[in-house]
Amino acid sequence: MAKLEQLSELLVSEISQFEKTVQRLEKIQQEKIGLDSEAFEKQLLEHQEKMKKDLSQYATEMKELGGKLEEAKAYPIWVLIVFGVSIVLNAVLIVMVFRDFAG
Fold it and tell me: Is the pTM of this model over 0.85?
């Protein structure tokens, strides 16, 4: 009989806890908590537009840079070597001429 009383007390306690939980859930449902994602969507669209604008500006700048690089005067290495050698030879010739005049 004692076991039966303990089981019935436990059952009553569990039912009481269950009723409290159900009441809390009913309160939550009555509050109708909603999610408003409109502000987030607006911010996301603004960011997307900014990214498109920045990407377009970047493409324009890269195109301009490519044009400027094509117009830039770049000399081949062999021309620079010939120029350097001619400067050295001219210096040697000038030194030889001054040596002849001095000596």
Answer: no
